[in-house]
Design goal:
Bound molecules: coenzyme a persulfide
Number of strands: 9
CATH topology of the largest domain: Butyryl-CoA Dehydrogenase, subunit A, domain 3
Keywords: Branched-chain amino acid catabolism, FAD, Flavoprotein, Oxidoreductase
Order of helices and strands: HHHHHHHEEEEEEEHEEHHHH
Shape: globular
Radius of gyration: 21 Å
Protein name: Acyl-CoA dehydrogenase
Organism: Gemmobacter aquatilis
Largest sheet: 4 strands, antiparallel
CATH superfamily of the largest domain: Butyryl-CoA Dehydrogenase, subunit A, domain 3
Oligomer: single chain
Cofactor: FAD
GO molecular function: acyl-CoA dehydrogenase activity; flavin adenine dinucleotide binding
Length: 388
């Protein structure tokens, strides 16, 4: 059920205040310590952030995609590591179960994910399986009333904190492509599951990724998401369609915040006897950034509304993710430029946000993968029209 306009506006306003008063002031601390403070995680739980997308019957807020996008645009204004803390529970770490799980799987896991008591993580990528997600090599061999998992998953966001993994593994070795892949809900701590050491990253300090290794890891047959083999790739794609809209919303929010930083700096900084904001060459950077951020907001909200109306938005989600992630990269780069020498110095946020933003063009599908998805859909449509 969509929220009434007043409640929706209040929710957005609450998130904006949380970001301005609680998150932005802690950005340097989080980046320097490479850790998320426990009090901030608790406040995120109290605000319901872990359960934004999970149905109310499981303790979540049950937001529509449009409402989720509006909230994420606000939270996305803070350094991306903050959003990352709860975002896997909202998106890729819960939606496999929420979209395709059995009633038992939903009842067992969604309440813990919604409250933030469990951190959910999505284990698709492998050392040899990145963009070619259908070629998963991790195996899940049926053995009586169990499956035995073997393989390594790579760069798994929130894995060091996860209580539950959605794992894509090949149940049918005879089928080499996407059709042989199944999805499993695997609890952390099961024998045979271990973690690599957290990776040192370019940015987004405070958010953690590591390998997840399965070595003859036995999970009960009930862990198979939806109870049907061979559906895992499709589950992953459905999860990513939604995840890409979420990422696009986060990019939009971050761009809007960076524009505030950029112009805010330029009105205070004086050169040649006046504020640098007076220089038209810089004004061009502000104007391009604003127009692109507004276009991104409109694109994301339009795709989100269409998803809420039941349309297939795979192509629109890729368009939004591609545009918004490339856009925030440009905006973050202009912000460094406007800051001049200060843009290269750690004590200012410009260089951190520039590094943080770089990941958006890569995870949940690179820009090049989004282009492939968009072009494939357009070509199929054209062939359909031409009867080819
Ligand atoms: N929703 C539902 N089903 C989908 C789908 C979607 N969005 N996209 C594809 N499928 C289905 C197809 O319809 C097809 O089903 P059938 O076999 O019944 O016809 C099946 O899945 C295979 O689809 P396709 O042939 O398009 O798969 P490809 O192997 O060509 O892969 C891409 C397609 C490249 C788009 C996919 O591998 C991808 O998204 N890669 C990027 C992965 C990624 O984002 N990784 C980031 C890490 S996870 S944070």
């Amino acid at each position: 059920m969509p929220l009434d306009p007043e409640t929706r506006a209040q929710l957005v306003e609450t998130m904006r205040r949380f970001v301005d008063e609680r998150l932005i002031p802690r950005e340097a601390e989080v980046a320097d310590a490479d850790a998320m403070p426990a009090d901030i995680i608790q406040e995120m739980r109290d605000l319901g952030l872990f359960g934004l997308s999970i149905a109310e019957e499981y303790g979540g807020l049950g937001l529509t995609m449009e409402e989720e996008a509006l909230v994420v645009m606000e939270v996305g204004r803070a350094a991306p590591a903050f959003r990352s803390m709860f975002a896997t529970n909202v998106g890729i770490g819960s939606q496999g179960i929420a979209i395709d799980g059995t009633a038992e799987q939903k009842a067992k896991y969604l309440p813990g994910l919604a409250s933030g008591a469990i951190i959910g993580s999505f284990a698709l990528t492998e050392p040899e399986v990145g963009s070619d997600a259908g070629s998963v090599r991790t195996t899940a061999r049926r053995d009586g009333d169990h499956y035995v998992l073997n393989g390594t998953k790579r760069y798994i966001t929130n894995a060091p904190h996860a209580g539950l993994f959605t794992v894509m593994a090949r149940t049918d070795p005879a089928v080499k492509g996407a059709g042989g892949v199944s999805a499993f809900a695997v609890e952390a701590g099961v024998p045979g599951l271990s973690l690599g050491k957290p990776e040192r990253k370019m940015g987004q300090q405070g958010a953690h990724v590591c390998d997840v290794i399965f070595d003859n890891c036995r999970v009960p047959a009930e862990a198979l998401i939806g109870g049907r083999e061979g559906q895992g790739f499709k589950t992953a794609m459905k999860v990513l369609d939604k995840g890409r809209l979420h990422i696009a919303a986060a990019c939009t929010g971050l761009a809007e915040r960076i524009i505030d930083d950029m112009v805010g700096y330029a009105v205070g900084r004086r050169q040649f006897g006046k504020a640098i904001a007076e220089f038209q060459l810089l004004q061009g950077l502000f104007a391009d950034s604003k127009a692109e951020a507004l276009a991104s907001r409109a694109l994301v909200l339009d795709a989100a509304r269409r998803r809420d109306a039941g349309e297939d938005v795979a192509m629109a989600a890729s368009c939004a993710k591609m545009f918004a992630s490339e856009m925030v990269g440009r905006v973050a780069d202009r912000n460094v430029q406007v800051h001049g020498g200060a843009g290269y110095i750690r004590d200012y946020r410009a260089e951190q946000l520039f590094r943080d933003a770089r990941l958006f063009r890569i995870y949940e599908g690179t820009t090049q993968i989004q282009q492939t998805i968009i072009a494939k859909a357009l070509i199929a449509e054209a062939r359909g029209k031409a009867g080819l």
